[in-house]
Design goal:
40% of the residues lie in helices and 26% in strands. The chain is an alpha/beta fold. Strands 1-2-3-4-5 form a five-stranded mixed beta sheet, sandwiched between helices. Strand 3, helix 2 and strand 4 (80-85) form a beta-alpha-beta unit. Helix 1 packs parallel to helix 2 and helix 2 (60-73) packs across helix 3. The protein starts with a strand and ends in a 6-residue tail after the last helix.
Length: 129
């Protein structure tokens, strides 16, 4: 499966790793499964690792569809945080688009990073450099 999700039993941190090509419907189905899990905690932070994903099929419309789905179904309380880690310029641009759209539609905090350690430090409360 091109989407792997782990939930930390202590903190509730969700880590999504996308690998290869991930069709929109498959991504939404995977997120829906996570939101329905008994160990899902909407207030917990999220780390999305896009470094191995092929994001070539992601257009503005696809990103908007993902944002709408997340905003509608995640149920995150105000201030919930999501760190997105990318490995290429295309991923950075798409993740920034996602960040701007999600922040505009839900009271959440999203940051895009090139480095997983920096992303985790931000999720743990350290300000980004």
């Amino acid at each position: 499966m091109p989407i792997e999700t782990r939930i930390d039993t202590e903190t509730g941190l969700r880590t999504h790793v996308l690998i290869g090509t991930v069709p929109l419907e498959e991504l939404k189905d995977a997120l829906g499964e996570v939101y329905a899990r008994p160990d899902f905690r909407p207030e917990a932070d999220t780390l999305c690792d896009l470094r191995q994903a092929d994001l070539g099929q992601f257009s503005h419309a696809v990103v908007k569809d993902i944002v709408d789905y997340v905003a509608k179904h995640r149920g995150a309380p105000p201030g919930a945080r999501t760190a997105v880690v990318v490995g290429r310029d295309l991923g950075f641009g798409l993740a920034r688009m996602y960040e701007q759209m999600l922040v505009a539609s839900a009271d959440v905090r999203v940051m895009v990073f090139w480095d997983t350690e920096e992303a985790m430090a931000w999720l743990e409360g350290e300000p980004p450099e």
